Each structure stands twice: as structure tokens, then as C-alpha cells.
């Protein structure tokens, strides 16, 4: 399904975080990502049961832009617990299927469910 800005808006709860064959945040990661109508986003991810030992949480926020033609989200991070996220826009391939948002990079796939 194509991704539109209006379909993206709101809150999404993290269901899975896969890095290759690994699940560094465990089988039940916790997280929330928000997209606002005025172009702001915020994401918080926390390890759940079975997470890799010492796995820190991740939090970042900033402006976002969606290229609807390519379904690529551009996260322009302005504050982050991971300094490397500040170095350049974070690009995410986006797909929405009903109440499921999938964000992916070359390395990771994150699955989110619309928060009600």
C-alpha cells in the first residue's frame, strides 16, 4: 500500500525490531513513534524481555518529511540518545498496511501498530 502523510499521522506502538536475524530488543520490545501534522516526529524504543544484555534504549526527535512518490521518510534528528543519528538525515522506507506501519533500512526492520 502506498504511504500518505495523512495515513502516517498519529501514534504507533512498536511490535518488532529486527536487525538481520537478530532481535536486539527481544521478542516484546517496547516503543512509541509519533508523527504530527506540523512535521514533527518523536521515537522512543526500549528493550523488552529477552533483549540482548546491556542493550540501551533509543530516543530521538526532530522534523520529518515524507516523499510520497518513493515512500521514503526523512527523519531530521535534532535530539538523540545516539549521537550518530545527528550526523545526517535518517532515511526509512515506509509501508502502511491497515494499522501496521513498517519502517526499514538496509540493516533493520521495525514494525509498528497504530495506537488507539
TrEMBL record:
Domain of life: Bacteria
InterPro entries according to UniProt: Lipocalin-like
Pfam families: Lipocalin_5
Positions of the Lipocalin-like domain: 11-47, 57-105
Protein name per UniProt: Lipocalin-like domain-containing protein
Organism: Mycolicibacterium fallax (Mycobacterium fallax)
Origin organism lineage: Bacteria, Bacillati, Actinomycetota, Actinomycetes, Mycobacteriales
